[in-house]
Amino acid sequence: MTKALQIDSKWRDFAETRCAEADARLTPARWAVYTELVSSDRPLSAYELIALQEDRQGRKIAPLTVYRHLDFLIKVGLVHKIQSTHAYVPCGHPDHAHESQYLLCTQCGRADELESATLKRVLDDMALKRGFTTTKSVVEVTGLCGDCAAVKE
Ligand SMILES: [Zn+2]
Ligand SMILES: [Zn+2]
Q1: In terms of domains, do 19 and 55 share one?
Q2: Per the structure, how many domains does the chain have?
Q3: Which of 57, 74, 89, 103 is deepest in the core (most CB within 10 A)?
Q4: pLDDT higher for 149 or 2?
C-alpha cells in the first residue's frame, strides 16, 4: 500500500515544466523521489531517502534506481546536492538555471538556499583575475539557523 504525500501543487508545476523542457517524462518513480525530498524539512541522504521510499511503498527498492532518479532530478534542475553532507534538497526556485549557495544548520540539519548572482560574480571575478576560469562553485556555510540560535540564547 502506498501512503500518498500531500504537497503544494506548485511543485507539480515545477516538476512538469522542467521535465518538459528537458524533453523527459516525469515518471511516477521520479515524482515519488521528488515529493519525498519536498516533504522533508531538511536535506535527505540517499540512504534516508531509500528507507522512506521503502516504508511508503511497502517494498524493497534497489538503491541504484534511486540514485538514477536523483541524477535525473539534479540534471533537470529540480534538486541540488549538498556536497559537504552528500544530502539532497529540492530547489526552491527551479524556474531558471542557477548556482546556489547554502546555509547549513549543524543543529537541526536544515538547509537554506541562497541564490546570489552577486556572490557568484565576485567569485568568478576573483578567479578570473588569477587567470582561472570557473566551471562550478560550491558555497556551503555551516552554522546555526535563526531558530536554533534563538533557543541557545
Ligand atoms: Zn536552486
Ligand atoms: Zn537549525
Answers
A1: yes
A2: 2
A3: 89
A4: 149
